[in-house]
Target: Fibrinogen C-terminal domain-containing protein
Amino acid sequence: MAICYSLLVIFITAVTVRCYNEVNVRGKRNKDELSAEDSRIDELMGILQGICVHENPDKTVEQLLKDTDTILKNINVYKNVVKKNKMLRKELKWIIEESKGQRETSRIVNLIKKGVRDVCISKKYKDCSEIKSKRQESGIYTIYPEKSKGIKVYCDMTDGKGWTVIQRRIDGSTDFARTWNEYKEGFGDVRKEYWFGNKYLNILTSSGKYELRVDLVDISNKETYAVYKTFVVGDENSKYKLTIGDYTGTAGDRMNYNNGRSFSTKDRDNDSTSGNCASSYTQGPWWHRNCNLYKNMTIRVRDVCVSKKYTDFSEMIGKKRENGVYTIYPEKSKGIKVYCEITDGKGWTVIQRRSDKSVDFDRAWKEYKEGFGDLQKDFWLGNTYLHIITSIGKYELRVDLVDNNHKKTYAVYKNFAVGDENSKYKLTVGGYTGNAGDSMSYNNGKYFSTKDRDNDVYSTNCVASIYHGPWWNLNCSYASLNLDLKKSKIRWGDQNKYIKAVMKIRKIN
Model:
């Protein structure tokens, strides 16, 4: 069962941390390089130096200026500090000139204070747990994992540890349904929602022993957490394989299931199912095994943040305005993933889509029973689910068609229901309106047939011998939307001329 979380933060910390005693220095200013023509600039540089002292509490201003030995030991760092201070001075001078002589010290200091840490940090810390030993404030820092030129991260200094935040979800403002390369490099805003980057996760977690902490806030603002004492992400050759274990916490162990799995995205399928979980199931890249909503924490907020369990999309229409994949809860159902769309101002549940030849629809009884395909592309929802949904109320069916001249037509049936398996998924359909022509009333009261289950009244199996497309056949049919597109176009009426078809249903009482 899916649980909606309105906020999600994932971060890691090193279990074992090496200690360093190096300190930052600024050294005496070189008059040729750092001479101040404007006393106001000199004053501001003094304030900035004070900030550097705050960043290095174990050194006084005097020590920072006079510790020649340390300067010599850190000559490259010192040169970098001088270079950055020169850049700061140039920026300060420009701001003062632009302000036409007005003193705006506090505003200027606030503008560049965020960047001062980069000037003041002499040691290149590999993660937030090392920064914690020198700084107590949570915020954005630059870390330097092995073979890295520097990565901007958000460090969380709570709980007495320095945590490196590797993912944050708070409001759905950032699209997480991204490609392999985007997840490799990372994306988003470290101040808001973001993903750290799989290649950096590998670099970081391969440099020592790391633990993972996941903080969750549900729609009732209840906070829970999960900690895993073992957390490692492999390199790209391993498909960023996940190693995770040793759970503690209050949220429940939901990630051991993913241990040993490879990372999947919508354009790189590495899960163990026939389809692509990252694309068709949740639009959420993750270390998928079999598609499982509960264990996927990068899914779009819209997909899971439904506190009320709606029986179909028509009930959501007042709150949801976007086409996409949702979970509905018809009677006696634990939840069904469906594609929902708005057509003609109404909320429809799509039960079938044909758009190209990528999915084989000439399948067996069991496959039509359970459903198949990709909810984002071509699929059949499943006769079991058609029965469950249409048995809870009165439903109408809409069929949208596109012919080989790209002309669009439609048919609406005000009465649509599918029986259970004992009835051979008997079809009830009627009350036609539209401009495509009535080609399904002929099928009213008929049973579903597949190539391995012949329930029509024709002398042979229509599906197996003629249409190669399971359907509710009598003497074969005037409509067959599941034809094998490699052998024929979609049939509606007396013509096989349609190249696209969508079937969708809506509750009307």
About this structure: The first helix runs from residue 31 to 34. The chain has a mean pLDDT of 74. Residues 69-121 form one domain.
